[in-house]
Write a structure and sequence with these properties.
Layout lengths: L2 H5 L2 H29 L4 E3 L8 H10 L3 E8 L10 E5 L5 E3 L3 E7 L5 E3 L8 H10 L3 E8 L7 E6 L2 E2 L5 E3 L3 E7 L5 H11 L12
Parallel strand pairs: 2-5, 7-11
Antiparallel strand pairs: 1-4, 3-5, 6-10, 8-9, 8-11
Length: 207
């Protein structure tokens, strides 16, 4: 039989159909195997872990066949309980597969302390961003007569004056005393002279 007759014969077409059927069957079986091995279609919604302790997180995720990884602790946040989850990834409601790891960050036990920076004779515009960068907040702003307008003259916390290097807790409100810029140069010199005027010493009896 010539090649041309073979290619047009029933035997050839029968073999082609058998080959196509085998390929289709193998493809079907492969897709089912792939679905089984990747657990396709079996997804779990990530629960909301916010404000849960690490022990509660472990218990909740075990029930869903999920795992967790503790990344780090974050600066204390007063709106979250101590040692509770502040951040999680993936976020709540995200569909994940069995065994997926959920990354969490835990709240610390309390505010950490920071050192008071040198803001004296800095401008108000310079002082506020510096405080915020350290986790501090701007408190009450008071103006007093001074040549330097909006210049920081004093820093106070709960009524007491602060010195550079003093420690306060993060999120503390720092009150600022600023110059109003209304005092003339002569008035400032006069005020300074008054402050440094000599004080008469009183003799002390020798013991």
């Amino acid at each position: 039989m010539s090649l041309r007759k073979y290619l047009t014969s029933r035997v050839f077409f029968g073999q082609v159909l058998i080959a196509l059927a085998i390929i289709a069957a193998l493809g079907y079986l492969f897709m089912h195997w792939l679905t089984f091995t990747t657990d396709h279609g079996h997804e779990i919604a990530v629960p909301n872990l916010s404000k849960l302790t690490e022990e509660q997180v472990e218990e909740k995720l075990d029930e869903l066949d999920l795992d967790y990884v503790l990344l780090d602790s974050v600066d204390y946040r007063s709106d979250f309980p101590q040692f509770s989850v502040v951040e999680q990834d993936p976020s709540p409601g995200t569909k994940v597969k069995v065994g997926r790891k959920i990354y969490i960050k835990i709240n610390t036990s309390g505010f950490s302390s920071v050192r008071i920076p040198d803001l004296i004779e800095k401008t108000y515009r310079e002082a506020v961003p510096t405080l915020k960068a350290l986790g501090l907040e701007e408190g009450t702003v008071t103006y007093v007569p001074n040549l330097g307008k909006d210049m920081v003259l004093e820093m106070r916390f709960k009524g007491r004056n602060l010195k550079v290097g003093d420690r306060v807790l993060k999120s503390s409100k720092i009150d600022l005393v600023l110059g109003d810029g209304k005092m003339s140069y002569e008035e400032e010199e006069s005020a300074a002279d008054t402050l440094v005027a000599p004080i008469e010493e009183t003799p002390v009896d020798e013991q």
